[in-house]
Amino acid sequence: MAKVVAIIGDPREKGTSRDLFQKYLAFFQEHPTIEVKIYDIRELAFDPNLPEGYRTEQTPEIIALKNDVRSADLLLFSYPVWWFNVPAVLKGVIDHLFWRGESYSFKDKKYFLTGPWRKKRARLIYTIGGMEIQHRLFGRPALTALRYPLWMSGVFSVKVTSIDRLDLSIRRTDNYYNKKVTHAAKKDIQFLLKK
Hints:
By secondary structure, the protein is an alpha/beta fold. The chain is built from 6 helices and 5 strands. A 5-stranded parallel sheet has the order 2-1-3-4-5, with helices on both faces. Strand 3, helix 3 and strand 4 (121-127) form a beta-alpha-beta unit. Helix 1 (16-26) packs across helix 6 (174-193). One of its GO terms (molecular function) is NAD(P)H dehydrogenase (quinone) activity. It holds the Pfam family Flavodoxin_2. Belongs to the NAD(P)H dehydrogenase (quinone) family. Keywords: Oxidoreductase.
């Protein structure tokens, strides 16, 4: 059975990121051979600040997330872009999830191509109020905030779906955004069914 760990990284109760997250996951309900485990950062009990660095004690919720990620084939992160970056609480999840000695290890030479998560795939779906070209001009920090830790852990198959122009007068139609998310879900399901 293939496994997906889906993380909704929007700290708001409602929003486009959450709506598109649900639309994406709806396609997986048609495939009983794919298990989906959902984590909502609004419900995770943890300190995103790592007050003791890598000595910070992990909460049961973070430990459960890490255990599920270890056995997952696909990691989904859906989040809004705020000031060209991920929301602060999602950055905290990233810091806890990509833990030295677990998701990568310099000591054991398990990073990049030899990383422990090298057989996984990731899908990043992010929403941005402005235009994606603006995000690209600044080096796409909301993408690299996740892509670099994923690469360090061995996940080089990182697929990106950007949803832009949400706050502009030249906003695209909801149908356009839904088609992008539908296309991403179908591609990821094809990947999982081949495993």
